[in-house]
Amino acid sequence: MKTFEKGKLRVWYDEALLSVPPEQCFDVGFWQQQERIVGQASGRGTTWFIQLDNVQGALRHYRRGGLFGKLVRDHYLFCQWDKTRSYQEFQILNHLRQAGVNVPRPIAARAVKKHVCYQADLITEKVPNARDLVTILQENTLRDEMYVKIGREIRKMHDAQVNHTDLNIHNILIDDRERVWIIDFDKCGVDFSQDWKSGNIQRLLRSFKKEQSKHNIFFSEHSWQLLVSGYLPQVKE
Ligand SMILES: Nc1ncnc2c1ncn2[C@@H]1O[C@H](COP(=O)(O)OP(=O)(O)O)[C@@H](O)[C@H]1O
Ligand SMILES: [Mg+2]
Q1: Quick one: CA torsion of 14, 20, 21, 22, rounded to 10 degrees?
Q2: In the predicted model, is pLDDT for residue 65 greater than 90?
């Protein structure tokens, strides 16, 4: 990881993946001018998919949700550079990749200090040919084996002691090779206690149920049992 520093700006980046100057890569207008925006997705804000030289990236500005978010939208209290959300997410992604969990490669993270606050952005590698679970389950059922695989991937993340504070089915992707990916590690951290793990799993179940009543997705108790069987360790004879 390389660091670029200029005044109130810090960018941390992987120079093997970032093929443009670090001070420009978070400017959506820059990508638009070069006609290198290849798509977009929406979550809290817009995620822009951009064409780098060798890979595609997903560029996201950090925004708050909820009522508080309406007041201070995208400003966070600054404490230290390495405590910024973008830097932390960059590090968590590297940690998870080293642990063999399918998460996007981090490409660049930015923090810009504004008085006592900062704003932040992140570019990760776009997971190629993937769709999120909500979209998939609106159209079709998933094969049994896929639920087991989702459970296994979450288990790997938990074995790496990463608490995903927003584990929902918008943040789980499946690609065209049937690989499961977990995304969106804002505010997530490495936590050596255990008590948050079942909370993550319960949140995921609530997310399935919510989308079932909202969007009528394919989902059943049987699907959930399969997912849990992938999550729980195999009993050795
Ligand atoms: N690396 C990525 N590869 C593919 N799609 C992505 C990637 N990162 C984000 N997305 C898409 O953008 C959406 C929003 O990004 P996400 O990181 O979940 O932020 P938030 O939910 O806070 O807006 C995701 O639901 C997903 O559809
Ligand atoms: Mg999300």
Answers
A1: -40
A2: no
